[in-house]
Amino acid sequence: MNAEAPGAQNAVEASGITKSFGGALALDGVDLTLAWGEVHALLGENGAGKTTLSNIIAGIYRADAGRVVVDGVEHQFRNPAQAIAAGIGMVHQHFRLVAPMSVAENLHLGSPQTPRLVTEKILVARARALMDELGLHVDPTAKIWQLSVGEQQRVEILRVLSRGARVLILDEPTAVLTAQEAHDLFGVMRQLVAAGRTVVFISHKLNEVLEVSDRITVLRGGRHVVTRDTAGATARGLARLMTGEERELDVTHRRIDGSAVLTLAGVSARNSRGLIALSQCDLVVRGGEIVGVAGVSGNGQTELAEVITGLRPLEGGTITVDGTDLTNASARQIAAAGVGHIPEDRIGVGMVSSAPVKDNAVLRHYRTDELSAGKQLKRTAVVRFAERLVAAARVQTRSVHTPAGQMSGGNQQRLVAHREALVGRRLLIAAHPTRGLDVLATQEVQSALIARRDDGAGVLLISDDLDEVLLMSDRIAVMYEGRIMGMFDRGDADRARIGLLMGGHAEEAFAP
Amino acid sequence: MNTIRFERRATSDARRSAAFRVLGAVAGILVAGLVLLITSRNPFTLLGDAFDANFGSQRGLEETAIYATPILLNGLAVALSLRMKIWNIGADGQFLMGAWAATGVGIHWAGPDPLVLLVMALVGAAAGAAWILIPALARAYWGVNEIITTLLLNFVALQLVLWATLGFWRDTKSAVVQSAPPVSANLPVFPGLDFLHIGFIAPLVLTAVLWWVFRSSTWGFEIDTIGGNPRAAAFAGINVPVRIVLVMLCTGAIAGLSGMIHLSGYAFRLNGGISTNYGLSGFIVAALAGGSFIGLLVGGLFIASMLHAGITLQAKGLSTYIILAIYGAILLGIAIGEVAARYRMVRERYDPATEAVR
Ligand SMILES: Nc1ncnc2c1ncn2[C@@H]1O[C@H](COP(=O)(O)OP(=O)(O)O)[C@@H](O)[C@H]1O
Ligand SMILES: [Mg+2]
Q1: pLDDT (tens digit, 9 = 90+) per residue, A469-484?
Q2: Which CATH number fits domain A260-350+420-509: 1.10.760.10, 3.40.50.300, 3.20.20.70, 2.30.42.10?
Q3: How much is the ipTM here?
Q4: Which CATH superfamily is A10-243 part of?
Q5: Residue of A62, A331, A375 with shortest CB distance to B237
Q6: Where does the pLDDT of residue A248 fall: very low under 50, low under 70, confident under 90, or very high at 90 and above?
Q7: How far apart are CA B69 and CA B160, in angstroms?
Q8: Angstrom distance (rounded) from CA A431 to CA B286
Q9: Which of A76, A331, A406 lies nearest to residue B355, judging by beta carbons?
Q10: A291, A478 in Cβ contact below 8 A?
Q11: Given CB atoms, is A62 within the 8 Å cutoff of chain B?
Q12: What is the pTM of this model?
């Protein structure tokens, strides 16, 4: 792909990039060439080095060895400002916007081009001009906190482009987006490359990469595996390159007529803003089956998991677990009844990032006789319990004494998932359990859910990924605006009908 | 050309952090020495005098321990709430209310000493707890920031004490005009010592208790979990608002007890100046100790000896301003050491020839 003709130089040529963090090699002599006017996907499992490589190209980290040539000139960036001056900008996994400030203010914050003396009116006008020029629109007077995640991301992209970036690196931009927002983002990316810019799209989602990119570079374990054209690539082949092995999840679906573990009858609840989030939900989960809840995020799934696990009060209805009425019981009573919960926001709700791995491992079990006598914690038993859990969940951590927040997202998720599987002797509520995980970790978590089911527990799987629901579930419920719109056996479920129900089109879905 | 950069360390290490704080204190003392040199005083003699004041005599040691008692107790109160990431800025107010309530008992009732002291301690602790009750409820159930509420109540407590000592409890029998009458029962002095009252045991015992609670009890585990992530604590089935209220009441009770001990062991009568910023000093120690109870014990004794040395040096003609500047330099040194322990220096080779011209 090295075009030799003058004026047609590559946007970026990085070669031999090596970087280690305190002895651990994160990148080992990686090459990456970006042409002008392409969407270049950077594909790899969690920890493959995608973020580290991007951070080096964008001047945030310095490489231990290797060269970065931008538009034919070699650079040694010492900070992001120098990279952006050379035309390279990056949008990070975690946004860096100031929430109480307006879009226009955020676009101008810290920019050398912002006029010294300025009024809100001038800022808004400048923001509008920029948006028109780039064909990317967000209300410039809106405050950041009022925007959806997709709009916030758009502001981040505008901010980077307004600094003159011609190479735009997007680090896992779709991880936080709904399917529709992701689709809109792909439109923006195509538009940018059509104007001659270069976009680096980082992801571990194969179908997205296949959909939007022109070329693909695969990293694995800090090494460059391959760079190829997207045309002709298959999801299966790429997955093999990413993981280095081929594995298929083996799911046999079943029909269970056993007794109900969980029974919801006429359950209603409000969300945190006081609006009705669940209305009159009836749902049964039997031991030994996985019931999938399909639906677009924000249709009451979060509240459903919360009412069942005692984190949110019911407005009406009853919840029964194994025949015992647990309506509005405390979270502790419900856990004691054998109900585990892999929460949607595992870092914000399921873990204490600043606490050591061992404390997180025993978060749900520290009051058992194994781990405490009266009010006294058995400290060696705690460490032993944690070490067993870490080994069983194949969590990679230096030790059980290191803060849990220092582990990668995949390891945090494995820890929480296995811990909750231990709690969920009878019932396991799994809310988006594989969101953000790479191929291998996804399969591990899915296998853990299936193992729990095969042990006779009921599993309630909440996911906005319809493929996952169809893959895993023995029965499927569809949620829309706080209601359960339909219930299918896996054998009778068809994608089109579920899709219609997810959009609230009940009449069409059930039309003969 | 080489450049030097500071990089945040991935891990924090308690021992490194403690060592850096000691280094910071030493650096602060060196800076203070320089200032003294510039103002043409001999820092070595003064350091010698300061050392002598504290450790040169039994009296010095005892007085230091007397100062250390309220500082340590208030520091423990603040440190306990800090484990929950709650800032009790009102230890001074709770201290005053503890002393105030204990005075109410002590000036009106002349029963057997041990009984009077016991009731005074209970009433003092209860008053301290009551003084933080509203901030605690407001914080736990409505999310009202406790920094402001506890701070403002300090001023209210001081006015209350002034009102009592200038008004309804004013001692009209003696020449001490702005003070309540002496309390009927005093804490006994340690057998064999001249000044130090047995209240000094309280912070030592409490340090040991809290150290154990946070090292090996489910209470400590739950409090630390709330401090780390209250949502995860609720997820784990901990009743977070109730715990917040209980812990805040405990911190108020400790500070209130501290007021009672200081009253009955050292001041003997209530007046507006009974707390010479013991709450603030305790707060500083707790903040610098970063949640470690052992660190707090060391730091509290250190600050008390600094205060005591300051008073001695003042008697030798050093101005209050210079003494305050020295305190400031030392505390700043410790604070910088605490932060510096989290970073490391990285030296980088940097070749300007390859830097692009743009
Ligand atoms: N700041 C850091 N300190 C220590 N190790 C790091 C740091 N950043 C990344 N790593 C390690 O480097 C490797 C690559 O990480 P990363 O670039 O974030 O991967 P990816 O973005 O592909 O998931 C991982 O093993 C990760 O643990
Ligand atoms: Mg990454």
Answers
A1: 988 999 999 999 999 9
A2: 3.40.50.300
A3: 0.85
A4: P-loop containing nucleotide triphosphate hydrolases (3.40.50.300)
A5: A331
A6: low
A7: 24
A8: 40
A9: A76
A10: no
A11: yes
A12: 0.76
